[in-house]
Specification:
Length: about 350
């Protein structure tokens, strides 16, 4: 856009526009004295950047700069990975088998990097070298593949595949993960030192504290969930036992023809359904325990086993005490024993009636 097509643009405004887009200062007096030159400069700023570089050249420089930054980032990542891998493989701790595996993998790593550090001689270069040194009897013969020290690329890759197995690669990946967790600060400072130096230490520590508090909160909620699961299981067992006792009482009343057998049969079917749901709940609990297995699971199960063992001992002691109490009635008449049995049933009926009246 030239000044001739925009008569509203003053000399002062055009001076500011030209001075802002060109690496020189153009005064309003120069524009007034040389109108043709000002038009040429105004047309020039449409094709140049503020630094006086052509826009196409500026775009190419920007793209090249971005490509160099990307290449530098990739090089730093590769160098960091190489350093970590070398540190892990040179670790001398461990048994003889682990050290042998590390030596094999270190040799495989060296073989994989030969192409990056050595230039293999191609067939064309080999023919040229042979024609240049015709008098040299020790020159290597021309071959169809590039070789160095008598090895070509296929030999190197084949040796690499033979030396490294999948399980070794998985073990190396685990060791690298542990090494990354230990030296993440050094790696961050090495890969991007300017950004790392601009970090606020207080903010970084706040992030770490927040992560630790979140981890503690999740652990607490998980423990509460496990406790609630076991508590629900215990309460379900208690309800089931009470229903079984209630079913026995109803069945006894129905057998004595003091109550209809409908209630007993209905409760028996309900107990079967409840037992089925209890077993399903137990299966779900086992699936949850298997899915969320941690080091705290075994102590919890051992504690539960200890409680169950203690309750079993108490029940065995009560049974022994009851058998000892009834041992004195073993020699009595059978009719008298039947009378005692009826008396016990009558006591159960009285207890059930009292419970019903209290409810």
């Amino acid at each position: 856009m030239s000044r001739s097509t925009s008569p509203d643009i003053t000399a002062k405004n055009l001076s500011g526009q030209l001075s802002g887009n060109l690496p020189v200062y153009v005064s309003p007096d120069d524009i007034t004295k040389h109108p043709l030159l000002s038009q040429l400069l105004e047309d020039l700023i449409l094709r140049l950047t503020p630094t006086g570089v052509h826009k196409t050249t500026h775009t190419q420089l920007t793209q090249t700069t971005q490509a160099m930054m990307h290449a530098r980032q990739k090089f730093l990542e590769a160098a960091t990975l190489h350093r970590l891998t070398t540190d892990v493989l040179l670790n001398t701790t461990g048994n003889d088998g682990d050290q042998k595996v590390r030596r094999d993998m270190l040799e495989a790593l060296t073989l994989s990097e030969v192409q990056d550090h050595l230039t293999l001689i191609g067939p064309a270069e080999d023919d040229q070298a042979k024609s240049t040194h015709q008098g040299n009897q020790h020159s290597p013969p021309a071959t169809g593949k590039a070789r160095v020290f008598g090895l070509n690329e296929e030999d190197l890759m084949l040796s690499l595949d033979v030396r490294v197995r999948r399980e070794q690669s998985m073990r190396l990946a685990g060791a690298l993960e542990v090494q990354l967790e230990k030296e993440w600060t050094k790696i961050a400072a090495f890969v991007d030192p300017f950004e790392f130096m601009s970090y606020d230490l207080d903010k970084v520590m706040a992030i770490v504290e927040r992560l630790q508090s979140t981890k503690q909160k999740l652990t607490k909620e998980k423990n509460q969930l496990v406790h609630s699961t076991f508590q629900t299981d215990c309460l379900s067992e208690q309800v089931y036992r009470q229903l079984v006792e209630y079913s026995k009482v109803l069945h006894s009343l129905a057998r004595k023809q003091r109550l209809s057998s409908y209630f007993s049969q209905h409760l028996a079917s309900s107990l079967v359904n409840l037992n089925t749901h209890t077993l399903r709940l137990r299966c779900l609990q086992l699936e949850v325990l298997v899915a969320t297995y941690t080091s705290q699971t075994v102590p919890a199960l051992r504690s539960l086993e200890g409680h169950l063992t203690q309750r079993g001992k108490v029940a065995q002691q009560n049974l022994t005490r009851l058998n000892h109490a009834f041992a004195s009635f073993s020699g009595l008449d059978s009719q008298y024993q039947e009378l005692l049995h009826e008396y016990a049933k009558l006591q159960e009926d009285i207890a059930f009636a009292q419970t019903f009246t209290q409810v």
